[in-house]
Amino acid sequence: MAEGVVTVVAEGIKPLGEFIIQQAKFLGGVSNQIELAQNELHVIRGFLKDADTRQQDEERVRNCVELIRDAAYDLEDVIESFYLKVASRRRGGTEKRIVLKRFACIFNEGLNRYKIGSEIEHIMAKLSRLRSNLETYNIRQISGGESVASGFKRQPDRRRTYAHEVESHIVGLEEITGTLVKKLVKEGKRHLVISIWGMGGSGKTTLAKQVFRQNEIKRHFDCFAWVSISQQWEGKVVLEEILIKLTSPSIEKRKEISKMKMDEIAEEVYSIQREERCLVVLDDIWTQEAWNSIKAGFPINEETESRILLTTRKKEVALLASRNDHLHQPQQLDDNQCWELFEKIAICGSDKTDFEIDAEKRKLGEEMLKHCSGLPLAITVLAGLLSRRETVDEWKTVLGNVNVYIMRGTNVPEREKTSQECGVSGVLALSYDDLPSHLKLCFLYLAQYPEDHEIQVTRLTQLWIAEGFIPSTSEIHGSIELMEDVSYGCLTELVQRSMVQVGIYGSSGKVKRFRLHDLMRDLCLQKAKEENFLGIVNSSLGLGSNAALIGKVRRLALYLDENEDGRDGHIRSLLYFGLGEINQKWNKRIIRSVFNDFKLLRVLQFENIFRDFDLPKTIGNLVHLRFLSLKNSEFRALPSSVSNLVLLQTLDLRGIGTIRTKIRNVFWNLEQLRHLYLPVYSDIGKLSFARLCNLQTLVNVRIEECDWNDLVQLSNLKKLRIRASETSELEKLKDMLISRNRTYKHLRSLSLQVNRPFAGDIIPSDIVLRCPHLYKLQLEGKITAFPKELPNLAKLTLFGTRLKGDQIEILETLPNLRVLYLGWLSFESETMVFSQGGFPHLEFLNLGTLEDLKEWRVEKEAMPSLQRLRIERCRELRAVPDGLQEITTLKELTIDGMPSRFCSRGRRRGFLQNQTCAFSYNHKYRNLALAEGASRCFSSSCGSSW
C-alpha cells in the first residue's frame, strides 16, 4: 500500500510545487528541491510496486516500506506548510493578507526558506537511503504498465485445494447443488462454463466439491480434472496438470508431456474435451489474465458435452469465462443454517455423543454466531475452536474476544505459534493483497465507518476524490473520463472483487448504497491499523481522549460523546459521526478545536450536530479543504471567509430545516467546486455561480436568488434541483434556455419545485425538454402536458402535478421507466387504468395520498416486471385491482394507512395468489393487536407469510 501513499503524496504536492516553482526568484533553492522531491517519489514508486508484494513475508522489507511511507507523509507536511507561508505573502489584497497571515501560525517565527530547504533535503536523503536498502533486498523496479499480480508468483502458495478432501459438515447446499448438477449434465451440446463467485470463505470451493462428488456427475462424465489455480498460476503448468488428470498417462507419457510446448499441450487438452465428456474444475482463479492464458485449451463455442466449473472471488472473471450465463453467488447462511452448521462441529463432534447443550451454552453460542454474519468459514473456525472447549467458562472466554478468535483461529496468547491461515483473516487477506495500490487506499478508507453503516456511494466517491486517491484526469480510449466516473469504477471493482456488499441499486442501475461484511470490516480495521492509515476515537471502545494513542495518523474518525477530544496537526481527513443531542459546551469545544488545530485538513465531515451553533470565522483558514460537509447540522450562518477555500470540490450545507441558515455570496471564488448542496430553509442573498465551470451538482437553489445567466451557463451540470417562489421565475428560465438554444446535455437528474405545488402553480414542461438525457425527474407542481421525449428516464416522482386519466398513457409508454412515485395530488381523476402492455419495465410503484382515486384497473400484461408495490393513504380506493394476480414477478406489497374496507375486500376477492410475495400492513387507526390480526388474515388468504 505504500506505493499508493507515495502516489497520492506526489499528486498532492504537484500543484503546490508548481505554485512554489513560479515563485522561484523569491525562494532560493527551495523550488529546485521540490522538483527533485517529485522526481524521487516517481522513481521510488516503481520499487514499491514490487516491495508491496514482498513485505508480507519479509520483516526487513516491511520495516523499510513503513519508513518510506512515513517519510513521504513528512515531505507532504513540509511542502504544504511552506505553501501556506508562500501563499500568505504572495496573494494580493490587504484583507487577504490579514487572513492568510493567520495561516502561518503553524510556523515558528524564526522559520525561513533555508530551514524548509534543509528539512526537504533531510527527507530526500532518507528516501534515497531507503530506496538503496530496497535494492539490496533484491527489490526490483516495476514499470507502470507491469502487472503487480506477477509478484504473487514469488510468494509461497498459501491456499491450495484438492478434490479428494471431503468436507465433513455441509449445510444449506442441497438445492443449489442439485441445480448446478442438472445444468452440467442436461444443458445440451454447447460447451458450458459455470462460475461460482463470492467473497473468501463464502463456501465456493465447498459447493464445487459437492457438485464434483455427486454420483450423477460421476456417471455422466468420462474424464475429470480438479485444478487449483490460486495466485501463482502459470498457463503451461495449469494446462499440463489438466491434461495429466484427464488422461492418467503413464510415466513415459508424463515425461513427453513435460517436454511439450504450451500450444501443443493446449491442443491436446482441447482435443480430448471434444472427443470425451470431460468435467474440469478450475478452483480459485483470480484474474482475467489467468483465464485468458488457458482458455485456448477449451472448446469454447464448440458442440461438446464437456463442461467447466469455475470458482473465483471476482465477478469480472466469472463474467468473462461464463459469457454472462450460469453465474452463482453463494448467499450468507440464515440463522437456522448457522446454528445447524455450528452444532454439527462444536457439539456433535464431541466425544460425548449423548451430550446435549444446556440453555446457557446455547445462548453463548448464538451470541457468538452473530459475529460470523452468516459466513460459513467463520462459523467453521469458531465451532472448531469451541469443539475443544467443553465448559461454559471456556465458552465465555471465547465470547469475550470472539472477533479475534474468529479472525486468527486460535487463542490470543498462542497466535505467534499458529499460522493466521487457520482463521478467517488469512483467507480474506488474500483478497486484500491482490488489490492494486490505489484500491487498497480506497478499501482502507472504509475502516472509519461504524459497524453495519450503509455507505452512500455518491458521498464516498466525493471523499475519495478529495483525498487524492483518484487522479485529476483519466484518459480512456482517447477521451477524458470524469473523476466521479473513475471513482465509481473503483467502487464497482471492489464489489466485483467481493470486498464489499451491495445494499441498494439506484434507478439507473448503479450501486447506491453498500456495506462491509462484519468480518471484512475487521480485516479492514486490522490493515488500517497496520498501515497507520487512520485512527478512530470512540469512547464506547475505551480508546480514551488522548490523541497520542492513535499516533501520527492522517485520517481521524470521531465517534464522540462529551468526554472526548482530539488534536493532531497532521490530520488531513476528519469524519465526525455525531451521536445526536449532546452537551452544547462540548459542541463549542470540539468546533473550536477542529477549526483551530487542524490546519492541513483536506476533508471535514461535520454532520448531525443538532443544536444550533456558530461556525468560527477561522473556517477560512483551512485553505487545503477539498471536501466540507455540514449536512444536518444547525449552524446559523456561513462565514464569508469560506470564499478563501479555493480548492473546495464538495460543499454540503443541507440542513434539517428547523432554523434558517444565513448564506452569503461566498461561492464566486470557488472555481474548483464540483458539488454544491444548499439548505432548503435559508436566508440567502443574491448568489453568483458565473465562475463555477466545474460544477456538476447544484441542489436546492432558489431561482430568484441567483443570476439566470449563471444558471444557463452551467453546462456541465449532472444533477440540478431548482426551487421557485412562483411560476413566473421558471418561465423566465425556460425563455432564456429557448432564446439561447441552450440544453443541459449532461444533466441526468432534475427536480423542479414551486413553493405552492398544491395551489395550482404550473411548471413549464419545456424546461424538461431541454434536458434530453434525464435518468431521474421529480416535479412538484402542476403540469399541463407531460413531455413524451424522455427515452432514458428510469425514475419519475410526481407531486401536485394533477395528471388526468389520459396522461397516464404517456407515462406507461416510457421505455426505460423502472421506478414511479405518484404522490399527493399527482393524479386527480377517480379512475386510473394501466393498459395492456403498459409500463413494460416498471419494477417499483408507489401510490401515495391520491385522494380522488376510487378505482384502479390493471389490464392483462401491464407491469410485467413489477417487483414492489406500495399503496398508502389512498382512502377512497376501493380495492386492489384483480389484474395484479397475473403479475408473477411481484415480491413485496406494502399497505399503509388504508381503510379497513379496502383490506377486507382484498381478502374476500383472494387477490395475489402468489407464493413468493411478502406483505406488510400498517393501519394507524387500529391498535397493534388488530393490525396483526388483519395481517394474518391477509397473509393466509394469499398463501404467503409476513
Automatic annotation (TrEMBL):
Q: Where is the Disease resistance protein winged helix domain?
A: 449-524
Question: From the UniProt record, which GO molecular function terms apply?
Answer: ADP binding; hydrolase activity
Domain annotation NB-ARC: ranges: 177-347
Q: Name one Pfam family in it.
A: Rx_N
Q: Is the Nucleotide-binding keyword given for this protein?
A: yes
Ranges for domain Disease resistance N-terminal come to 13-91
Spans through the membrane? none
Q: Does the keyword Phosphoprotein apply?
A: no
- Biological processes, Gene Ontology terms: defense response to other organism
Disease resistance R13L4/SHOC-2-like LRR domain segment(s)? 593-896
What is the name attached to this protein's record? Putative P-loop containing nucleoside triphosphate hydrolase, leucine-rich repeat domain, L
